[in-house]
Specification:
The complex is a heterodimer of chains A (about 190) and B (about 375). Chain A is α/β, with parallel strands linked by helices. Chain A is built from 6 helices and 7 strands. Chain A is about 35% helix and about 25% strand. Classes of the chains: A alpha/beta (about 190), B alpha/beta (about 375).
């Protein structure tokens, strides 16, 4: 049975809710059941933000994520707040700008320069969320590549398709070319 | 193509799509989290179907505007959350006594007052019933999924037209904001009810006369040539105010009766694994989704538990609750408040079975595990 619960965390304005929607839509294209939800504070920018996606081949009743299989963290605050919500054997993808790497021996941690790649390689910090989706795909293959690319193009402003597909590829490559550092339980460099 | 029909859609978005399908041509509102998407999307979509959107200066103006639009002959809706729902109560009473069809959406958040703007709550169950003053009955509906939000929004419009009454559509932050897949029905699969227009000549029109065999008076559109008077005062068949005690008694009883005497048509409920159940959970909206998961878990552990889900919150599904209470050993009402619907369930079912309540008001959705633990305890 396929049942994966994912939590995308960071601060308001980083595009995490959009990333959650894109991932959910890609899963829908693959014919899977999906529920996407979010929580955020009253602020327009800043403040904690998280998007949650449940992907399953069964009916999904409870729409919220409690313990997750995979978590993305783009800020230290979000990482610290939700680190304990990752299931044993789960995966944490964290941005390399986060100074304090959490201690969890029972999960796999990928430390990846997502924000730096968005700024320096692509010149657009706002595509960090799409790069992050690329890393999630490369690690989990939870949705098909075709569906992911289609969902990205469906949800981003018209005219930015090329930039966003490039951002996805940067995400794939960060993992493929071992630009990440990997720690813990399931680390393939152990 | 499959892709064309199945969409990833947010609950609030499904509400707007359905409202437009049901024939909404006018929306007036004052945005408030977590209902704002309903205003945004109505602003975007209504002009494309020949409708109008207006952002009013506040919630009282918004409900007044939709009542006016409906009296002028178009289907209308407004959406809000708890703080705005409080302000709309005066207008809801006016819609009740003037028998003006309209839909009021309340995407519930934590309260009281401005409370928890971005967090879910179910604290407006009783306000939906008794928020406006005076003797009246009300229809309030509460779906639990994106697909059902679509269907029940259409039902809300249909009931408001059929019974000439304001209909409250209750949602909560969880189901309003979450996205899931929805397959939109074809136009020919959807039943749309439109208010009954006058069949007589304008000079013979009595705006508040109920014809033999009809539920409600025929409704002309203001400005269409049928002259009539609209007032929140007690009125006779002509629509003009009166303090005649016989007319007053008859009017209020008719307003209450048109809803309470037609529960068979209005009340909709859903059930899950109740046939052999010893314990039934009563829950609605997002809480019912947690309850359904809890039922599955408890069944795996050998406990005979089922779920009873009122979709029509008001009028109360008392007949169904009494039937249920005679079959099970215990009812457990689970809601994101300190026990509002519980009091009603206990009132009608308490003499036949034990009724317990489990609630939470932290701004977080009740989890399946909490329900499992509570039921094992009792």
């Amino acid at each position: 049975m396929l049942h994966q619960e994912l939590r995308l965390t960071g601060s308001g304005g980083q595009g995490l809710i959009l990333a959650g929607i894109i991932l959910a839509e890609a899963a829908l294209y693959d014919g899977l059941n999906v529920v996407q939800s979010q929580s955020y504070g009253p602020e327009a920018r800043g403040g904690a933000s998280k998007a949650e996606v449940i992907i399953s081949n069964k009916e999904i009743n409870f729409p919220k994520v409690d313990k997750c299989d995979l978590m993305l963290a783009l800020t230290q605050t979000a990482c610290d707040k939700y680190i304990d919500s990752i299931k044993p054997n789960g995966i944490l993808i964290m941005d390399k700008s986060i100074p304090n790497v959490p201690v969890r021996e029972d999960i796999t941690i990928y430390l990846v320069p997502i924000i730096e790649t968005a700024m320096n390689s692509l010149g657009y910090p706002m595509v960090s969320n799409v790069i992050a989706l690329g890393t999630i795909y490369e690690i989990t293959k939870i949705v098909s590549k075709a569906s992911l690319e289609k969902a990205v193009c469906n949800r981003i402003p018209r005219g930015t398709e090329e930039l966003n597909i490039k951002a996805l590829e940067e995400g794939y490559n960060l993992i493929r070319n071992h630009k990440e550092e990997c720690f813990g339980h399931g680390c393939r460099f152990n | 193509m499959v892709e064309k029909k199945i969409k990833l859609m947010q609950g609030n978005e499904a509400c707007v799509e359905a409202a437009i399908t049901a024939g909404m041509k006018f929306y007036a509102g004052y945005p408030i989290t977590p209902s704002t998407e309903i205003a945004e999307l109505s602003a975007e979509k209504l002009p494309k179907v020949g409708g109008r959107f207006i952002q009013m200066e506040d919630e009282i103006a918004s409900i007044s505007a939709i009542i006016g639009a409906s009296i002028a002959g178009v289907k209308s809706m407004t959406a809000t959350s708890g703080p705005g729902f409080s302000l709309k109560q005066e207008g809801i009473g006016y819609a009740v006594i003037t028998e003006t069809p309209c839909v009021i959406v309340n995407v519930q958040r934590g309260g009281p007052s401005t409370g928890l703007p971005t967090a879910p709550g179910q604290g407006d169950i009783m306000q939906a019933r008794w928020g406006t003053h005076g003797d009246h009955s009300i229809i309030a509906l509460y779906p639990w999924s994106v697909k059902e939000i679509y269907d029940i929004t259409i039902k809300a419009f249909n009931l408001s037209e059929k019974y000439r009454t304001p209909v409250i559509l209750l949602l909560d932050e969880v189901i309003g904001h979450m996205r899931e897949s929805i397959e939109l029905p074809e136009a020919d699969e959807i039943e749309i009810y439109n208010r009954k227009r006058p069949s007589c000549l304008p000079e013979d029109y009595k705006p508040y006369r109920v014809k033999e065999g009809d539920l409600v008076p025929e409704m002309a559109g203001f400005g269409e040539g049928y002259r009539f008077h609209v007032t929140g005062l007690v009125h006779g068949e002509t629509g003009f105010p009166t303090s005649n005690s016989k007319i007053a008694e008859e009017l209020v009883r008719r307003l209450v009766g048109k809803i309470e005497d037609n529960k068979d048509d209005i009340v909709e409920t859903d059930e899950y694994l109740l046939d052999d159940a010893d314990i039934a959970i009563v829950a609605f909206g997002s809480t019912a989704r947690a309850a359904k998961s809890a039922v599955d878990t408890l069944r795996e552990e050998g406990l005979k538990v089922g779920l009873f889900r009122p979709i029509t919150i008001w009028p109360l599904a008392d007949k169904q609750l009494v039937d249920l209470s005679k079959k099970v050993n215990r009812l457990v009402v689970v809601e994101m408040n300190v026990g509002q619907y519980y009091l009603e369930v206990d009132r009608v079912a308490g003499k036949y079975t034990k009724v317990d309540k489990y609630g939470r008001v932290s701004g977080e959705l009740i989890t399946p595990q909490e329900i499992v633990d509570f039921i094992k305890e009792v």
